[in-house]
Amino acid sequence: MIGIMRGLWSYREFIRSSIRNELHSRFARSRLGGLWMIINPLAQAAIYAIVLSSVISARLPGSEGKYAYALYLLSGFLGWTLFAEIVTRCLTLFIDNGTLIKKVSFPRITLPAIAIGSALLNNLFLLIAVLLVFTLLGHDLTASMLFVVPLTACVVAFAVGIGLILGVMNVFVRDLGQVVPIVLQIGFWLTPVVYPISIIPEAFRKIIAHNPMYHMVSGYQDALALSVEPRMGSLVWLMLASLALLALGLFMFRRAAPEVADHL
């Protein structure tokens, strides 16, 4: 772990410039520039809100006002999009940077650091946009929203652990690159992002309760949309499990790095 931190610190300028160059190249000739990072998830949330609000909004726990469902939906999207983006980026991390890995000597840990930094920056812009929407819709900004910070840390640790494990495996079993996006789509609908868990049958609630992202996403919804303190008891255990998963992912990453370079 000390070696990993030393490598990250030594190459901090490389990480920073890589994140900046990635954002610049992505929106170099775009008139709206970085706004596209938040337009897509906000547009998705708006579509779901328009289609489903009349069906679900009346059943939201503790909901008040005609915009309650839209706020609930935006809060859930904030947590899920961060998780999905990190997992997706880490999945193809080694394949996308195969030429760089084989020809240049540098700490390989900087690659996931760049992916995480870029995803967090995207999520920060989205958070600012979501809070602006909340303000425009008349939703008070409360102290409970500060719980987004530990929730984000939990999501990042969980996503990076899964992403690194899948990223290493994807080098040797390329089918994973096709399977994981499908699994993420299924996982999205098995996570109460666009619906509250209270509207589904009791038998299915017990199944969804075993989904770690359910607890994290509901934490975002509690903190942002419902203005209540998230159930931190379950999140503490999830954070510990996420850190263990992250440690496993980093272990696999370090052990498999030489074989990955040879196999690319």
Features:
mainly alpha; 75% helix
Dominant shape: globular
- Low-confidence runs of at least 5 consecutive residues: none
How much of the sequence lies in strands comes to under 5%
Radius of gyration: 19 Å
Number of helices: 12
- The separation of the N and C termini measures 25 Å
Major β-sheet profile: none
Helix content: over 70%
What is the string of helix and strand elements?
HHHHHHHHHHHH
Task: Please identify the structural class as seen in this structure.
Answer: mainly alpha
Rounded mean pLDDT is 81
Structure summary, number of beta strands: 0
Structural features, described:
The protein has 264 residues and is mainly α. The chain contains twelve helices and no strands. The chain has helices at 2-10, 12-26, 36-56, 68-91, 93-96, 98-103, 110-136, 148-172, 176-189, 202-208, 212-225, 232-263. The longest helix is centred in the C-terminal third of the chain and has 32 residues, at 232-263. The chain is globular. The relative contact order is 0.15. The mean pLDDT is 81.
